[in-house]
């Protein structure tokens, strides 16, 4: 979710743009709790909350928000649009199977992964998220950060930024077999996601294992 905004009567409601790391359930719950706590009449809830929609969520609301809509109906529709099986599958793929891009700075990469991890794995430990993040980083960062996942987030991020600044990029190992596997796997990936070619195993929750890919050529 985007940062909260002041909406009158001293309430700061969060914003929701429908980005993949944003959880519509959390957004709806936070808004409901705040509106109820400040005694805002139920018939004003929709006006106040719909003003907090941004980006894709605002575009969606422009299509479905005509006429009056009950609060429960709004929340149900919002979750159906931004938390259905397809949306969660996309989030899971982004979390588990997308490595750091060549031009992507390490701080942005870490923050994006941690936000996704928090959305999809409620109650998990930060060290678990950072363990995942490290395995999907650029090759030259891996040996320096694998033993640092017990740090707090800001400390870990500062260390990663210092290492990124100091180390030299390494060529990524790519065997003929890996190229063939990557090419075959790409047939199952949407065109916009075909920036990765080297198969790489990343452990998923409940002892599952997903075939993920590290950024290649």
Strand portion: 5-15%
- The total count of helices amounts to 10
Uncertain regions: pLDDT < 50 for 5+ in a row? 174-217
Helix content: 40-55%
Sheet with most strands: 2 strands, antiparallel
Order of adjacent strands in the largest pleated sheet: 1-2
The general outline is elongated
Number of strands: 4
Structural class: mainly alpha
Task: Tell me the distance between the termini.
Answer: 33 Å
Domain count, please report it.
2
Q: What Rg, in angstroms, do the CA atoms define?
A: 20 Å
Mean pLDDT: 77
H/E element string?
Answer: EEHHHHHHHHHHEE
Structure write-up:
The chain is 52% helix and 11% strand. With 217 residues, the chain is mainly alpha-helical. It has two domains: 2-83, no CATH class; 87-215, no CATH class. Strands 1-2 form a two-stranded antiparallel sheet. Helix 5 packs across helix 6 (106-120) and helix 6 (106-120) packs across helix 7. The radius of gyration is 20 Å and the shape is elongated.
Q: Secondary structure elements and their pairing?
A:
Elements (H helix, E strand, L loop, with lengths): L1 E5 L5 E4 L8 H14 L4 H9 L4 H10 L6 H12 L2 H13 L8 H15 L5 H10 L6 H4 L7 H14 L9 H11 L9 E8 L5 E7 L2
Antiparallel strand pairs: 1-2, 3-4
Give a brief description.
52% of the residues lie in helices and 11% in strands.
Q: How would you describe this structure in keywords?
A:
mainly alpha; 2 domains; two-stranded antiparallel sheet; 4 strands; disordered C terminus
């Amino acid at each position: 979710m985007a940062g909260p905004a002041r909406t009158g009567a001293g309430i700061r409601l969060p914003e929701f743009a429908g980005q993949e790391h944003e959880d519509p359930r959390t957004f709806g719950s936070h808004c409901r709790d705040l509106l109820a706590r400040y005694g805002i009449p139920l018939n004003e809830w929709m006006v106040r909350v719909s003003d907090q929609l941004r980006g894709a969520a605002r575009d969606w609301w422009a299509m479905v928000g005509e006429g009056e809509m009950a609060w429960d109906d709004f929340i149900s529709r919002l979750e159906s649009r931004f938390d259905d099986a397809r949306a969660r599958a996309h989030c899971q793929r982004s979390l588990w199977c997308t490595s750091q891009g060549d031009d992507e700075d390490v701080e942005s990469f870490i923050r994006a992964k941690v936000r996704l991890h928090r959305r999809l794995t409620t109650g998990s430990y930060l060290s678990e998220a950072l363990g995942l993040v490290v395995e999907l980083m650029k090759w030259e960062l891996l040996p320096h950060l694998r033993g640092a996942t017990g740090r707090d987030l800001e400390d870990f991020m500062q260390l990663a930024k210092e290492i990124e600044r100091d180390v030299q990029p390494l060529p990524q190992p790519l065997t003929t077999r890996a190229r063939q596997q990557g090419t075959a796997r790409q047939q199952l990936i949407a065109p916009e996601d075909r920036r990765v070619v080297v198969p790489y195993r990343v452990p998923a929750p409940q002892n599952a294992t997903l075939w993920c890919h590290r950024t290649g050529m």
